[in-house]
Amino acid sequence: MNISIIFLFMHTMFIAVKSESRFRLISAHRKPEYDNKYEVENAIGVYNVRFVECTVKCVSNTRCLSFFYNNLTRVCILHSDPFTYTVMSFSEKGWKFYLSQERYGRCLVDFFYYRELDLCYKLEPTIQISVVHEDFVCPGSELMRIDSNERQDYIKLVTADIGRVYSHGICIQGKKSQGKWTYNDGSTMEYFRWDQNQPSEYSNVIAMIRNQNYKWRNPTRVSDPCTYMCEYRSLNN
């Protein structure tokens, strides 16, 4: 990955990156509502560098989705978390928070891009479990597919404090058809994280239960709500 062009506009820094024989435009957008807050837990890197160098370090690291930078101390903290549903633990003057986003490339607008897993995703509010599989859920994309330990662990990371906003489970892709669990495209599911005595088959929906270490369950009442995440898959996935 080559850093080709860097330019700053208002609260956003744009970086043109040459990757896989083509250019991608990645931005680092400041979120002023998080000024003077920061987080160290689960950081993927901590450095003493200038702001531009901090931005480049994030863009150069496929695990980096956001970073904190302190203008007074020149401390740079890289994270894999967009901090939508993760509470920042510390407060101190000089800290600013920046969220990276790939522009006009792999993801849809307003989707986060976690490059390490080639995952474009968006966190959504609650819906009723009974409509999870309807076409109007995740328009232009699809319900989050969990097919590896890496994806399971990443979802746990970015929804660590979602319970402070939504107390419900997180509905994910998967339904039972002709005796086997399948994804939306009909392919067979081979990865599961069922809780004890699951699947219960009370419903044809899978929900991750946060207070049970994100184990999977079939919700017993389809009238209950759940929150969810959408993902935009590439044609190669």
Q: Descriptors for this entry?
A:
237 residues, seven-stranded mixed β-sheet, 2 helices, 8% helix, disordered N terminus
Distance between the termini: 22 Å
The total of helices stands at 2
Strand content: 35-45%
Number of E-state strands: 18
Low-confidence parts: 1-11
The radius of gyration computed from the alpha-carbon positions, rounded to a whole number of angstroms, is: 19 Å
H-E order:
EEEEEHEEEEEEEHEEEEEE
Please estimate the helix content: under 10%
Mean pLDDT, rounded to whole units?
87
Q: Going across the biggest sheet, name each strand in turn.
A: 1-2-3-9-6-7-5
| Shape by Cα distribution | elongated
Biggest sheet record? 7 strands, antiparallel
SSE-based structural type: mainly beta
Can you give a write-up of this model?
This protein has 237 residues and is mainly β. It contains two helices and 18 strands. A hairpin with a 2-residue loop joins strand 14 and strand 15. 32% of the residues are buried.
List the helices and strands and how they pair.
Layout lengths: L1 E8 L2 E8 L2 E9 L6 E2 L6 E4 L2 H10 L5 E5 L4 E5 L10 E2 L3 E9 L8 E3 L4 E10 L13 E2 L5 H10 L11 E3 L2 E3 L2 E3 L23 E4 L5 E3 L7 E8 L5
Parallel strand pairs: 13-18
Antiparallel strand pairs: 1-2, 2-3, 3-9, 4-8, 5-7, 6-7, 6-9, 10-11, 11-18, 12-18, 13-16, 14-15, 16-17
